[in-house]
Design a protein that fits this description.
124 residues; alpha+beta; OB fold (Dihydrolipoamide Acetyltransferase, E2P); five-stranded mixed barrel; 3 helices; elongated
């Protein structure tokens, strides 16, 4: 039984360690890639301010968050409405049939630069 490592085994271990290190260093670059989010065609653009959940203003008009509404941050993770109280946020949003705000996406600067209809544009 040969317990001493041969030069080939040492080279294999060094190579595997180098590959593992290289894969770990590439991971942050993969995480930094931006996610292109798709918004529904009926989504509108607006400026959201949460006053006291579920009471909000959308473009200065008071409204309510619908039961079960979802607010997604720029990283597409869910955000509780209480964590954004008082902040003026540029968002895309979808209304329920009775006019309450149901789905909200907080926009990045790049997403906010894209043109999208506002509720005021549709009422005129």
């Amino acid at each position: 039984m040969n317990r001493c490592p041969t030069p080939g085994q040492r080279l294999r271990r060094i190579t595997l360690a180098a590959l593992a290190l290289a894969s770990v260093t590439l991971w942050p670059a993969a995480q930094a890639q931006t996610l292109h989010r798709m918004f529904p065609g009926k989504a509108l653009r607006g400026t959201l301010v949460v006053l006291q959940p579920p009471v909000i203003t959308m473009d200065g008009v008071q409204n309510r968050l619908a039961p079960g509404s979802r607010i997604r941050a720029t990283n597409n993770l869910m955000v509780l409405s209480g964590t954004v109280v008082g902040q003026e946020l540029t968002v895309n949003y979808v209304l329920t049939p009775d006019g309450q705000v149901h789905d909200v996406w907080i926009l990045t600067d790049i997403e906010a630069a894209e043109k999208r209809p506002r509720a005021a544009d549709l009422s005129n």
